[in-house]
Amino acid sequence: MIYITQLIYIVKEQEDVFHQFEDIAIPTILKYNGRLTLRIRPDGNSIIENTIEVPYEIHLVEFDTQEDFDNFKQDEERKKFLHLKENSIKSSILIQGVKL
Questions:
Q1: CA torsion angle 4 59 69 1 (round to 10)
Q2: pLDDT at 98
Q3: What is the pTM of this model?
Q4: Contact at 8 Å (CB) between 56 and 15?
Q5: Domains of the chain (ranges plus CATH)?
Q6: What are 43-100's pLDDT values in tens digits?
Q7: What are residue 19's phi and psi, to 5 degrees?
Q8: Helix 66-73 vs helix 15-31: angle between axes, to the nearest 10 degrees?
Q9: What are the strands, taking DSSP E only, across the chain?
Q10: What DSSP character marks residue 46?
Q11: CA 4 to CA 60: how far, in whole Å?
């Protein structure tokens, strides 16, 4: 099992475009033995301390294997909509780990 944490930073006023991409990408996770286990949109009240910019969303996802994750990234249907991701996401930080 591998675990992915992603901090997602959105281009100002491109939230709707980002949501269009997510409407495609999130269901695709299931096709590759993945699960979106947590999706958080932090607000000012939920931040206790920070030294980085607060992301628009935080995703926690798990895949059964590295191959499943790699196959998800190469999904042809998802690739057709990468322009939505590129137009709406300013930057992201992806942290991959294992359960200890």
A1: 50
A2: 85
A3: 0.89
A4: yes
A5: 7-97 (3.30.70.100)
A6: 988 999 999 999 999 999 999 999 999 999 999 999 999 999 999 999 999 999 988 8
A7: -65, -35
A8: 130
A9: 2-10, 34-40, 57-63, 89-97
A10: G
A11: 6
